[in-house]
Structures are given as C-alpha cells and as structure tokens.
Amino acid sequence: MAAALTRRQIVETADRLFYENGFGATAFADIAASIGISRGNFYYHFRTKDEILDAVIGLRLQKTEALLADWEKQAETPRDRIRRFVHILVANRAKIMLYGCPVGTLCSELAKLDHLALGRAGELFALFRSWLSRQFDALGRSADADALAMHLLMRSQGVATLAAALRDEGFIEREVQAMNLWLDAQCPAIPPPTI
Amino acid sequence: MAAALTRRQIVETADRLFYENGFGATAFADIAASIGISRGNFYYHFRTKDEILDAVIGLRLQKTEALLADWEKQAETPRDRIRRFVHILVANRAKIMLYGCPVGTLCSELAKLDHLALGRAGELFALFRSWLSRQFDALGRSADADALAMHLLMRSQGVATLAAALRDEGFIEREVQAMNLWLDAQCPAIPPPTI
DNA sequence: GTCTATAGCCTGATAGAC
DNA sequence: GTCTATCAGGCTATAGAC
C-alpha cells in the first residue's frame, strides 16, 4: 500500500519540477532528492522518464477536469464562469511570472523536442477549449463559440509568456482587465425582465 | 581570417538549433556536426555554452534592429508598419507551428532555468515594444502607445504558443485577421482632405 | 586554427541485496 | 518496496599534437 503513496509523491513532485524547471532539465535525482527516496526506487514505479511524463500529464488532465467542473458548479452564468478562467492569471500570477503557464510552456518544450507526448499535452488545451466553447455557446454565441474560446486561450497564453519574459506583474493585471472588458463586449445585452 | 568565418558559422548554427531544439537540448556535438567541425575547435572561439548563448542573443538583437529599420523604411504609414509586424506570424507560420516564437520560447526556457541571460533575451521584446510604441505614438495614440504595443506583442505570443501546441495553421490566419481588424479600430479616422 | 584524445561529471537505466 | 552499487553513454570542458 506504501507503493501507491510513493507513486503519487513521484508524480506530484515531477509535476511541480517539470513546471518550475522544465521537463528536460529535471533529472531523476532532482525528483528523488525532493521526496527523499533513492534513484533506484524510481524504477519500481516507472520504467522510463517518458512514463513519468505521461503520468504527470494524466494528473494535470484529471485536475483540470475537476477544476472546470468546480467552476461549472460554483458560477451561475456563463459569463461568470468565463471570468473564473480569466481570473487564474491573477490568482497564479506569482508563479506565472517565474515559470509561465504550465500548459503552454510544457507544450512549447515538447514541440521542440518533437516529443510524442505533445499530442496528449495538447489535450489539456482541448479541455479548456471545449469548456470555454460551451460557455460561449450558452452565452448565445453558438456561431463563433469555438473561435471565441480559442481567442481567450490565446490571450491567456500571450499574457503568461510575456509576463514571465519581462517579469512584469502590472502587465498581467492590465491585460486581465482588458480581457474582462472584451468578455463583456461579447455578451449580448440581457433583455429587461418582462413584468 | 578563417576564425571569423568559423565563429560566424557557430553562432548562426547555434541560433537555428537553439530555436528548433531548445537551448538545453542542443549539445556542442549537434552544432559541430551541423557545421562539420570538431567539438574541440569550439573552445578556440567560445569558452562556455553560455558565451555562445550570449552571442546568439547578440545576433538576434542585431537582426531585429535591422528588420525594424527596414520596416520603417519600406512602409509609409505607422499603420502599415504595424501591419508588417503582424504579418511575420503569417510569413513564418511553417516554423512557428513547429517551434513557436524564437523570442518567446527562448525566454520561457531561460526563465525556468533561472538563467542570467533572461534579461538580455528580454531586450529582444524591448526592441519590438519600443518600436511598436513609437508607431502607435505616431498614430496619435501617445497616451496609451506602450499599452497598445504590449497588447500586440501579447497577442503575437499567444498565437505562436497555441499554434505550436495544437499544430493549427488556420488558427494563425484567423487571429492575424482579428489583429488587423483590431489595429484598424485603433486608428483614428483619417479626416477627408480639405479641398 | 583545427584536430584527436581524454578527463570528470551527470544522465537514465539495471542488478541484486535486504 | 526500498535500498546500494554499478553500468554504458552523453555532456561540457581541457590538453596537447599538428
């Protein structure tokens, strides 16, 4: 039963280190040292580094699904739900300024490595994309819901990349405000209640 | 005199390989093999890998300055100049879909490595930023010229990151069109000529 | 200036004791 | 399940022949 715990520790620590230092720059020794296990123990749980990457992406997919389901439950209107998405830039700004977006930077690295896992990592974007698309659809923008979802994803990626490159915190807040204004402009005026 | 040639070959090849495969994933052996020189010869021109990175950033800064000066000369109006900037996404879309933006991906990697050269790499963004800012200023938007410049930089970064992650070419074209529409909306209406 | 040879370290991965 | 010991191979960097 201790196996399940150790395995989970490995995946969660790898998740953090892949984000903070990059996949290629993270060695088994780093993960092992951070948990307090030996490098040898590693291979009882995973046979290769790529298997760990796969487990990390799986964990992120799982966490993302839970996050989106939570937003769906917590927020009442599609507009408020989309605002939750925009707000992660503010909530995570400290880490974003240091390491960028966990999804975007992983995909960028895997693209350069021509790594097979790029497809699976892209599913993380696909989750946000289809969720946002459904919100825009519910907002009455069914014709261009997917384009609006991609546009918002694009802006969040641009903000994260530039904020990390220039280490500029104020920039995040200004662009988040612009994103919220843009979002309001996409919402059709709500008809006044008929009394 | 052959030294200058070899040195230039090293920097230009490193520039390409850092872009295509990443800084960390590019070994001296890769650069040497691509040029056709020995690994040992390397250290006659550069003492460390970081020195090569510095030279690569220097080359990119130089090329960027030349590019911006060329746009300044080729295009007549500020609006046309800014459109030149937007157009690089289309002109380089094949490579962008494979490797993302050369500036953004390098900065992302250096940020994770906590590399000292991040500051110098950020100067590449600063060049585009101040150039774009001057164009918006000339467009009559002196009050928010810098914010508009950052906004456009942000969008180009978002487009490059997402296009590379999802390997989606149509997305680049749609967003470039949206960027051009946005740009037109920022231009104050040109008063009709007084006859 | 460019080469070959090699040092010294770190990497992912394996074998086998406990 | 976890450990120690170890392997083969890759890396940056150096030394010295030509």
Give an account of the 3D structure.
The structure is a homodimer of 195-residue chains. Chain A is mainly alpha-helical and 195 residues long. The first copy, chain A, folds into two domains: 1-47, Homeodomain-like (Arc Repressor Mutant, subunit A, Orthogonal Bundle), CATH 1.10.10; 57-186, Tetracycline Repressor, domain 2 (Orthogonal Bundle). Helix content of chain A is 77%, strand content 0%. Chain A contains ten helices and no strands. Chain A is elongated and about 70 Å long. The model of chain A has no long low-confidence stretch (mean pLDDT 96). At the A-B interface, helix 7, helix 8, helix 9 and helix 10 of A face helix 7, helix 8, helix 9 and helix 10 of B. Chain A binds a DNA duplex (18 and 18 nucleotides) through residues 2-3, 6, 27-29, 37-45, 47-49.
Largest sheet of chain A: none
**What is the annotated CATH architecture of the largest domain in chain A?**
Orthogonal Bundle
Distance N to C terminus of chain A: 63 Å
Q: What structural class do helix, strand and pairing data of chain A support? A: mainly alpha
Strand content of chain A: under 5%
Portion of residues in helices of chain A?
over 70%
Shape assignment of chain A: elongated
Largest interchain contact: A-B, 41 and 41 residues
Radius of gyration of chain A: 19 Å
Give the oligomeric state of the chains in this entry, treating copies of one chain as homo and distinct chains as hetero: homodimer
